[in-house]
Amino acid sequence: MNDQKALEKWNGFVARTAEARLSHLNERDRALYLAYWYQSEVNNGGHLQYFLNRSAMDPVQETAAAIRALRVNAMANVFEDAIFLWCGTEGPSIETVEDYIDEALENEFESLDSRFAACEKDLYLAMEAAVVNDLPLPKAE
Hints:
By secondary structure, this protein is an all-alpha fold. Helices cover 72% and strands 0% of the residues. The longest helix is centred in the N-terminal third of the chain and has 27 residues, at 27-53.
């Protein structure tokens, strides 16, 4: 497949994912959706942002399984450690920008954000390969 076709497939996936409802997706697309939103939110504002923006909408254990199905086990380990840390807290009460800044400055997720950055490219490449090549995802182990 040429680069232009691959780019069109990836961009189509991103556009569909931005508009998709998780409940309307098949198993493969659901896994890609969950992995995509995890990566996007953490890239945009770290694990704190992911949990504040997505955890009520996205099933976190299924997200971890989706990352494992993409065979990016180091990233799945990071995410599972982040889940453990998030679940071990009461969850911040954030109502204002100042509340968010105060919480972010506590850097609870700093080491996990760094570990995410170290293997983020692997997750992107796995998602891209699955989308561009229409690959089925194996069951997570």
